[in-house]
Structures are given as structure tokens and as C-alpha cells.
Amino acid sequence: MGITTKLVEFCDSVKYEDLSPAVIDRVKYHFLDFLGVASRGSIVESSKPVYRLVQDVATNPKGAVIIGTGMKAAPQYAALANGTSAHSLELDDLHNESSLHPAVAVFPAALAVSEFSGGSGKRFIEAVAAGYEVMTRLGKALNPARHYARGFHPTGTCGVFGAAAAAAKLLALDQEQTLNALGIAGSQAAGSLEFLADGSWTKRLHAGWAAHSGVIAGLLAERGFRGPASIIEGRFGFLHSYSDGADPHQVLAGLGESFEIMKTSIKPHACCRYKQGPIDGILRIMRENNLKPDEVKQVTLGILKAGAPLVAEPRELKYNPRTLVDAQFSMPFGAAVALLYGKASLNEYTRENIASARIKEMMGRVSCVEDPELDAAFPRQWPASVKLTTEDGRRFSVRIEYPRGDPENPLTREELLNKFGELTSPIYPAERQSNIVTRVQALEEQDMKGFCQLLTA
């Protein structure tokens, strides 16, 4: 029996009644985080062309909700829109070992199919747990650094499989149909890192496309379309085609012993996850030593080798970001705003700050170096190091073992609620925010079609 078939058998076995309270609670935790970033992403510039496309070709008053808007669309297009908007802020969750963002592929597909098919909250929780498992295990098996080296973005490439697995659960597909859904998904796996060259928007589309394609895969399989049963492990399958350092063993290792959603991080800073640890270190040194920005002479940041091409190279671009995407992936920019403002939230990632002479001057005090000691624990752990020298010669250093938001250093429930409130305040009134939080906490009791009505603007 092949890897793909065994993975399908596992997905079929995932039942709400067998999930631990911790896993159920974590699904709710990540769902609330997803709803916050998706709703706020609805007012981001890159979301507007997607909404115009949906308006032109796919609006349906009986369709699935597009979060934060008054629109409804065919489920695959709702998934496209919600995945794209949720990935636009760089505030969505991340699974460390696979270096990908599961929420923005899995939740949009699960929400759209739930509303389309009238699914229950319990079935939704099952589907999300299974989708996270499929997506993250494939990411681990690819070897994130080797996958990046080929120019692929794992959220897009692995995300379609996670979305398809979630859709299959909610459509109540049998094992043969689910096997076909994953086989179909494999021919839709896409996501190029070339957006880094000019700060364009395609990274945001990767999540939406993965969610869209996963829904399509499930709906086609439901109607009898066939896909290859060896799509993961085959000679021309996903692992061999998308990495030259894949480890197929990682797909099934420890399957069923624990759930990967328990190992998934929540972001506190509005930027690439590879920047989060260094920013944490800067904030700690500045806070604990009561330093002012003008006292800082030099900052040296230890960067993971896998993250350097994303946030530290090429140097000319990273020290001269031109777009918000450039800034989200510029370690010097993230360090500069952390030094100057004591935070790196959405309010700091602005066009005004990109053009700011003060930010540019502070970026000049920041250098990034690869630190081989950090790489020893990667990808299970994403450590960072920070060395800071003041104008009067004082030296400070810190090593961040687990960035804020990691399961080992999690955001508290209160911090998550504050993040949700800040993100959704421009979209929903306070009463609606409170209602969403309350009903997410009782997700297993929800009729998902009714729940989704809360998400309209």
C-alpha cells in the first residue's frame, strides 16, 4: 500500500469523537486567528482585483461567503478570495517544520465547502485537523530548504493537498474518492517564489489558489473524476518533482500519534516568519535595558540559512524595499521599525515608512549574517540571535530559542483575542466581534451555514 493511500486511510479515520480536547481547542484557536487575518485582509489593495473577478464571473446569492464583504460566490471562488485576503497581511499561522502557512489554505476550503454542503461544526473540526495533517506532513517530507531552493513556495504547493483533504471530509467522500481528490490536487500544486524579485502580489494568491484548487479537486472527485493514486510517492509524483532532497518517510512517520496543528505557530508581527525571532530579540534588548533608538549604533542579526534568501538577500533589495511585500520580506526594514517604534505591527508596515528617511537611516545600522549554530535545530526550531552595540560602547546579546507565538512560547488567549479585536475592528462592530468569538468557542455546536452569515460585512 502506497504513501498516498495510507494518508487517505488516516484522513478517513479522523473523527471528532476521537480527537483530544487539546486538538479541538487548538482548531478553534487557529480558526479565530484565521478569521481575524482574513477579515482585515478584505480591505487590502491586493484583495480588490480578486473580488472584481468574483463579481464578474462567480457571484451567487446562495453561494459561500467572502469574509468581510457582502458578497457570496461559488465555493471554489469564495475559497480563492478568502485564502488570498488571509495571506495578504503576513500575520497568518505557520508550521515550523514544514515552513508553510496551513490556515490560509485549509480554512478557506473548509469554510466554503461547509457552507455549500451544510456541514456541522464537528465535521468542520475533523476536516481542519485532517487538512493540517496532510499539508504539513508533505511540507516536512519535501525538506523546506530544498523546496525553497527549487523556487517553490510550500504554502501553495502543499496547500492544495491540505485543502483537498479538508474538502473531501466535508463532502463525505469515501476513500477511493478522496484518493482521487488528492491525485487531482497534485496536478494543481503551484507557487513560485519569484514574487521576491519585485514585491508583486502572487504569494498572496498562492494560498487562495491552493484553497480554490482543493475545492475543485474534491468536487471533481465527488463526480467521478480520477487522479493518480501514487501522486505523493510516484516516480513523477509530488515529492520527486518538487524537491531534490525529499524524505518520503516523513509523510507517515508518527501518523496518528499526535496532530501537527499542535505544533503550529501564531504570528505576533506583521511580516515573514523568518523575521519574527530577530524582531523578538531586538524588542527584548531594547525593553530590558531601557534603550532609546538614538542610542543604537549597530545591530547584527543571526539569520537561518533557509530564511536568508527570503529576508536578507539580495542585499540591495532588502535595504531598499519598494513595496509592502518587499518590506514584509526585508529583515533590515523589520529591524528598523522594531528599533524605532518598539513593535512591528500592521501600523508599521506602511508606504510612509518605506519612504521614511529615518527608517532608511536605521536600516543602515542593521546587518544580517548566517549563523550555523542556529541551523542545527532547524526546521523543528527557528532560533535567532541578536547582538546590539550602543553609541557609548555597551554591548548586548540575546538568543531567541522559540519566537513569540511558537507552541513552546505561545500567545496567551488574551493576546490572541486582542489580535483578533485589533484586526477586525475596521470590519465588524464590537457586538459582532463578540458573537464570532463566542461561537468559535462553541464551534462543535454550530451549523456552519448559519455561522458563516456572521462573517459578512
Topology:
Blueprint: H1 3-13, H2 21-41, H3 47-57, E1 59-65, E2 72-73, H4 75-86, E3 94-95, H5 103-117, H6 121-142, H7 144-149, H8 154-170, H9 175-186, H10 202-222, H11 238-242, H12 249-252, E4 264-265, H13 276-288, E5 296-303, H14 308-311, H15 315-318, H16 324-328, H17 331-341, H18 351-354, H19 357-363, E6 366-370, H20 372-375, E7 384-390, E8 395-400, H21 413-424, H22 430-441, H23 448-452
Parallel strand pairs: 5-6
Antiparallel strand pairs: 1-2, 3-4, 5-7, 7-8
Helix pairs in contact: 1-9, 2-4, 2-21, 2-22, 3-4, 4-5, 4-10, 5-6, 5-8, 5-10, 6-8, 8-9, 8-10, 9-10, 13-17, 17-19
What does this structure look like?
The chain is α+β, with helices and mostly antiparallel strands and 457 residues long. The chain is 52% helix and 9% strand. The chain has 23 helices and eight strands. A four-stranded mixed beta sheet has the order 6-5-7-8, covered by helices on one side. Strands 1-2 form a two-stranded antiparallel ribbon. Strands 3-4 form a two-stranded antiparallel ribbon. A hairpin with a 4-residue loop joins strand 7 (384-390) and strand 8. Helix 2 packs antiparallel against helix 22 (430-441), helix 3 (47-57) runs antiparallel to helix 4 (75-86) and helix 9 runs antiparallel to helix 10 (202-222). The radius of gyration is 21 Å and the shape is globular.
